[in-house]
Amino acid sequence: MDTLLTNAPTTPLRQRMQQDMLMRGLGSHTQQDYVRHVRRFAVFLRRSPDSATSEDIRRFQLYQHENGVGPATINGGVSALRFLFLVTLKRRDLARALVITRYQRKLPDVLSVEEAARLLEAAPGIKYKAALGTAYGAGLRVSEVAHLKVDDIDSTRMLIRVEQGKGRKDRNAMLSPQLLELLRLWWREGKRRGVMLPHGWLFPGRSCTDPISSRQLHRAVQEAAEVAGIRKRVSPHTLRHSFATHLLEQDVDIRVIQVLLGHSKLDTTALYTKVSTRTIHAVAGPLDRLMALMEGKTPPG
């Protein structure tokens, strides 16, 4: 049976879908996600996805809602199954049966500057301090930090080269003098340990021939947050959120922040105006104006 189980031998259906994803330039992480989502659908069906009916799709999505599957996971599955049905199987009728879940996007947790400093100080070792410092100091995604190479640090132009970021796009990120110094401290320590290979990974994993994993960085952040006494829910992406918010609070133009983050849409970057304390504090409240008028003073704002 043509299932798309990742731990099973590659079947003709899975191979064809992977070829279709490759030809359309989908990134490796997207390909893995799509295969995982289709696998879940196959496990639910207990047969090949290419034998699915519209009623099967309805039952699967209803099952997800009844079992508390989050909207992001449901919608990720919709994207994967739409690709399978539209591109690989040429079954537009099945793709139309998939339903996107609408939900309100939550505001991201953001650290204060003081909390970010405490978190970095509590990082478990110079490698993690440099890696987390890069996530915060350059606003990189965790996968982008993990896949940096030594040659991506351009100290002459003070830039970090990010290759094949989200959407398989290349971009330049900022490199501050403080971050450069932190990276140099780690580079010297890495050379001393013998794990920093020429043209190799900037943050090697357990083997110096492999990059550090996103899971390792997640664990490092959570460990540092606990040591630093930070009660917020913190992940490597929190550092990226904090980078954007702190730049906004320094009056950096939001379009510049959009470029630095690698966002394709300004609407995505504009989310940070909702968590910027400076943006909120800059507004004069109606009660302040009312009280000023009652006291015969000039209203603020």
UniProtKB/TrEMBL annotation:
The record's section on PROSITE patterns has: CB, TYR_RECOMBINASE
Q: Does the keyword Thylakoid apply?
A: no
Which Pfam families is this protein grouped with?
Phage_int_SAM_4, Phage_integrase
- Where does the Core-binding (CB) domain start and stop, copy by copy? 8-89
Q: Boundaries of each Tyr recombinase domain copy?
A: 106-285
Enumerate the InterPro entries for this protein.
Answer: CB (IPR044068), DNA_brk_join_enz (IPR011010), Integrase-like_cat_sf (IPR013762), Integrase_catalytic (IPR002104), Integrase_recombinase_N (IPR010998), Integrase_SAM-like_N (IPR004107), Tyrosine_recombinase_XerCD (IPR050090)
Q: Which UniProt keywords apply?
A: DNA integration, DNA recombination, DNA-binding
UniProt GO MF annotations: DNA binding
Give an example GO biological process: DNA integration
Q: Which domain of life is it from?
A: Bacteria
> What does the similarity note say?
Belongs to the 'phage' integrase family.
Q: Identify the PANTHER family for this entry.
A: PHAGE INTEGRASE-RELATED, PROPHAGE INTEGRASE INTD-RELATED
Tell me what this protein is called: Site-specific integrase
